[in-house]
Description:
Shape: elongated
Number of strands: 15
Number of domains: 2
Largest sheet: 7 strands, mixed
Radius of gyration: 27 Å
Structural class: alpha/beta
Number of helices: 6
CATH superfamily of the largest domain: P-loop containing nucleotide triphosphate hydrolases
Order of helices and strands: EEEHEEEEEEEHEEHEHEHEH
Strand content: 15-25%
CATH topology of the largest domain: Rossmann fold
CATH class of the largest domain: Alpha Beta
Strand order of the largest sheet: 1-11-12-10-13-14-15
Amino acid sequence: MQLEMVQLSRVVFRKYGNFIDNLRLYVRGGSGGMGLQRLGGKGGDGGDVWVVAAKDITFKRIKDKFPQKRFIGGVGANSNIRALKGAKGDSKEILAPIGITVTFDDGKIIGHLNTEGDRLMVAKGGRGGCMYSAFQPSRGKAKHIRLDLKLIADFGLVGFPNAGKSSLLTAMSNATPEIASYPFTTVRPHIGKLIYKDYKQISVADLPGLIEGAHLNKGMGHMFLKHVERTKQLLYVVDVCGFQLASNAPFRSAFETVQLLTKELELYKEELLLKPAILVVNKMDLPGAEDKLLELKEQLQKPEDFSDLLPDDMIPKNFTAFKQVVPISASTGFGIDHLNSLVRESLDEEAENANKAVHEEILQELRHQVPQHS
């Protein structure tokens, strides 16, 4: 792909100061209506509560519009002389963002809403009174549910504090996240949007900083790792000179940092390591960076040969095979255009492979339907 074809024509940045990526709601189906005992009439069932995927809906909009976060189905009509079968109560629809997972409070998954119009019943209305219930209605089911965003960006920046992720996002997309020389500057996802000359858009998320032990929920562990699940691909960001969180913490070389990042993802959910990944080696403007980069590349070619550099509990089951290793300097801009090109190519390649897989599946299905002649 020609570099000039993928240069950014402009950039858009959204800083989610009030970003909400999950929401807890109280839902209750409507109560059923009374049955009419002397004529054998049946009361109407209570209304159900549904979550429905819709465009241009955000969790913040739901929270602002319904601050009590309570959704209750309509009450079923009582049976009467004019209408022995009472009308069903009105169903309640909760319009929610596309691309969410709906779960119970205990984490059990109710379902996923992946496209506009997808809908899930989350609370069933009560039954109307009838002769089997002595004409007494039942109450609707009540529960708490959680809505969780599944995908927040095409690429997620993965790195320890001070790896330069915020600076990188600024360099890639002209975004303006808060940048400081101390760890944990980023406490909420910041999303920069790259818009190319052909109007292709790619979103890149700077995720809250990761620390050793994140899989055990240390620091912002599970919050961070949950966001990683919601990106299509990963950009590992490491300091070419290595990393040390604090003066009493162990120093980690760039190679150790890569493996520790891999291990944290692996311990949380091994499937995360199946995501395509690019390694971004930052701070190439520092003295001695070229030698350190050559050493890192050598170690990554055969990482098992250098596993003795790692403590036993830091050695991943499987070492990450990066699609590219890209040296950059977020502060000077070195390598950023090349990285933007590779980001575009990687997503295009993934989309092309997905289309090929769909076409192959269709062909296989057609072959099975065509009669075989001997």
